[in-house]
Write a structure and sequence with these properties.
CATH architecture of the largest domain: Alpha-Beta Complex
Structural class: alpha+beta
Distance between the termini: 41 Å
Strand content: 15-25%
Low-confidence stretches: none
Largest sheet: 3 strands, mixed
Shape: elongated
Radius of gyration: 15 Å
Number of strands: 5
CATH class of the largest domain: Alpha Beta
Length: 83
């Protein structure tokens, strides 16, 4: 994975690093890389297809190639389910 790949870090990632005595590491050393991406202008059904085909838990949404947000299957279901 190259350095331009989006990365995410969670509270549990940070807590684990601190518990392991690694709080002096840089964020990039413990972040999770290699997430699937989708452009913000793609239709919702494309996100559904990617998530269904890959079984991924989330997609990083990009805007002009820059990470912009995250979408998960639960968020898609919530959006598509009439209230």
């Amino acid at each position: 994975m190259d350095d331009s790949s989006p990365g995410l870090i969670s509270l549990s990632d940070l807590a684990r690093a601190v518990a392991d005595g690694r709080s002096n590491l840089e964020v990039r050393e413990i972040m999770n890389r290699g997430f699937l991406t989708i452009d913000s202008e793609e239709p919702i059904y494309e996100a559904i297809k990617i998530l269904g085909r890959t079984g991924a838990g989330q997609l990083v949404v990009t805007e002009k190639g820059v990470p912009w947000g995250i979408i998960s299957p639960a968020e898609l279901i919530k959006t598509l389910t009439p209230s």
